[in-house]
């Protein structure tokens, strides 16, 4: 394409998508009328609606090809993936076999003619990239890749630099969806999802009351939930503009999942009756249609902003463990020979959170396998660090100093790779707590909570840190907040245990025993609880229960001594002295 000579032509930076139909001439020679009809139908039913959905401008169509302008490279790549899936779906529906596209995308300066046509190197490079793409594939320039690499849930393959026709400098090329099986039925997006980012769309909540004013309230809740979920670096969350495109439309969740490329969908409704408001929300697996979680919330209109905040916190707190459980089950069902690093991490998760010795060994083995596949996988590094930290805290370590050193090393490495991930920062905070670097631990946990104030585990670890710093009242507040955010979390018993220890610190020994008994009832296999429960009984004057508690401890930890417990715990010197006194009264040496 040549540039127009008009020196006053309008210029702007744009993302350009160039596409054409693979083997069009052959298809025309075989069935001219049928191919033309299919192409027209494809443009009308798939290409034009998807370009509109992703905020693109169809510049022109030329034979079997078309050119699209986007203001955002993110929208351009999303549209490209959506187009490939839509074209494949059209072929399956027609029974005639899929048409296939080649797509190239570039980001560059363009010249716009009065009639809307575009020219320039930005367009030429997109056209050259399209010719480099394999059938069903997408090729991006390095400029596009740099803009979308951390914003989209796709895996890209670096194809190196290519010298393309009429362009002076080599172009760095990245490919997506290359070599896809045109007969695949699972959908392109399921292949493109990042290994470590389950994806979710939050749809506009339906206003089923008679009051149209409630639309604003419902939209506000959805926007808050999207913003809160976006803080989870372990999720890919569809932006508001894309999910709100479905407002007022009757579309199946499975179709929405395919069109937005997401695995999970959150939907809901709002109903107002007088001064009362009821909000319902449910989380659905878009692939299967299975409901993973549902809840309703009631409030009054006078407290509308407080209610909005409460609903956002509760929904976000419930979504994370629900999706985590679904991802674990998904990985569990995969055949062993097909497991990748992400699958291995998902299989490890329930063992990580069980806080049991054999489970810790199982989790460690799975995480080591994941790290052999991907040594720089931040989540695997972080969980491996936490497993090693557990061995110290729960008296399972055969080499405490080595485990402390490795815990900190792995946690710091993970944080250097994902410095804005709240979960990974929380693990580093926990590791620094284990090594008794409380000031740095507080800094990491504060940072994690500023990034994600709805992280139940960050509040849990903050509660323990306040316990270790002799601040039991704040510790209890943080444990209670963790429980409110995620009451069915596998770590809930650990919050109850933390509240019990906070009461011990405050010398409320009756409450200390009650809360630790509650934790032990919820998790009977957590025998390590007896290390602090026994001295709580002793200080509460229940020596018989204290001795029985120590007996249970010794069954699981033959030969354990008070010095071993002191090495594992991180409380202040004064609190540790009271633990020692209570353990001695209970008969431990």
TrEMBL record:
Top-level taxon of origin:
Bacteria
Q: Which CDD domains match?
A: CHD (cd07302)
The record's annotation in InterPro entries points to: A/G_cyclase (IPR001054), Adenylyl/Guanylyl_Cyclase_3/4 (IPR050697), Nucleotide_cyclase (IPR029787), TPR-like_helical_dom_sf (IPR011990), TPR_rpt (IPR019734)
Map the TPR repeats onto residue numbers: 422-455, 456-489
Coiled-coil regions listed in the entry: none
Q: Which Pfam families match?
A: Guanylate_cyc (PF00211), TPR_16 (PF13432)
Sorted alphabetically, the keyword list is: TPR repeat
- SMART domains assigned: CYCc (SM00044), TPR (SM00028)
> Where is each Guanylate cyclase domain found?
15-130
What is the name listed in the Swiss-Prot or TrEMBL entry for this protein?
Guanylate cyclase domain-containing protein
Q: What is the lineage of its organism?
A: Bacteria, Pseudomonadati, Pseudomonadota, Alphaproteobacteria, Hyphomicrobiales
């Amino acid at each position: 394409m040549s540039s127009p000579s008009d020196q006053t032509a309008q210029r702007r930076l744009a993302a350009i998508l160039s596409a054409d139909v693979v083997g069009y001439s052959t298809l025309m020679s075989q069935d001219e009328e049928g191919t033309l009809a299919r192409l027209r139908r494809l443009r009308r039913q798939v290409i034009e609606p998807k370009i509109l959905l992703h905020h693109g401008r169809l510049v022109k169509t030329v034979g079997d090809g078309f050119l699209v302008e986007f203001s955002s490279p993110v929208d351009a790549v999303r549209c490209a993936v959506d187009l490939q899936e839509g074209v494949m779906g059209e072929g399956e529906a027609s029974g005639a076999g899929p048409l296939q596209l080649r797509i190239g995308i570039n980001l560059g300066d363009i010249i716009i003619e009065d009639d809307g046509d575009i020219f320039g190197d930005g367009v030429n490079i997109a056209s050259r990239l399209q010719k480099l793409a394999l059938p069903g594939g997408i090729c991006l320039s390095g400029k596009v890749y740099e803009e979308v690499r951390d914003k989209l849930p796709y895996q890209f393959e670096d194809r190196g630099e290519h010298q393309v026709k009429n362009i002076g400098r080599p172009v760095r090329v990245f490919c997506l969806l290359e070599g896809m099986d045109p007969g695949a039925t699972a959908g392109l997006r399921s292949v493109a999802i990042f290994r470590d980012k389950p994806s979710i769309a939050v749809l506009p909540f339906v206003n089923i009351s008679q009051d149209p004013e409630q639309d604003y309230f419902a939209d506000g809740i959805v926007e808050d939930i999207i913003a809160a979920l976006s803080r989870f670096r372990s999720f890919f969350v569809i932006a508001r503009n894309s999910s709100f495109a479905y407002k007022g439309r009757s579309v199946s969740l499975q179709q929405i999942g395919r069109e937005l490329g997401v695995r999970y969908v959150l939907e809901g409704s709002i109903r107002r009756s007088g001064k009362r408001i009821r909000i319902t929300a449910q989380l659905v697996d878009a692939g299967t249609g299975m409901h993973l979680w549902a809840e309703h919330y009631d409030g009054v209109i006078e407290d509308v902003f407080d209610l909005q905040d409460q609903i956002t916190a509760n929904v976000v707190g419930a979504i994370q463990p629900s999706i985590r459980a679904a991802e674990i089950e998904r990985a569990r069902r995969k055949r062993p020979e097909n497991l990748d690093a992400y699958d291995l991490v998902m299989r490890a998760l329930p063992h990580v959170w069980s806080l049991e010795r054999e489970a810790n060994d199982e989790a460690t083995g799975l995480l080591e396998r994941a790290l052999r596949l991907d040594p720089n996988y931040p989540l695997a590094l972080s969980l491996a660090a936490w497993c090693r930290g557990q061995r110290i805290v729960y008296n399972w370590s055969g080499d405490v100093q080595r485990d402390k050193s490795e815990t900190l090393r792995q946690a710091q490495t993970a944080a250097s790779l994902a410095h804005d991930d709240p979960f990974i920062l929380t693990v580093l905070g926990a590791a620094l707590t284990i090594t008794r670097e409380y000031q740095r631990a507080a800094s990491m946990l504060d940072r994690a909570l500023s990034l994600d104030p709805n992280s139940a585990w960050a509040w849990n670890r903050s509660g323990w840190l306040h316990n270790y710093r002799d601040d039991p009242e704040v510790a209890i507040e943080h444990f209670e907040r963790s429980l409110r955010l995620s009451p069915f979390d596998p770590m809930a018993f650990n919050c109850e245990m933390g509240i019990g220890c906070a009461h011990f610190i405050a010398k409320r020994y009756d409450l200390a025993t009650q809360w630790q008994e509650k934790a032990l009832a919820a998790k009977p296999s957590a025998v390590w609880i007896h290390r602090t429960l026994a001295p709580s009984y002793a200080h509460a004057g229940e020596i018989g229960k204290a001795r029985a508690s120590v007996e249970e401890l010794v069954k699981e930890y033959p030969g354990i001594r008070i010095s071993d417990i002191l090495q594992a715990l991180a409380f202040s010197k004064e609190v540790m002295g009271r633990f020692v006194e209570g353990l001695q009264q209970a008969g431990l040496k």
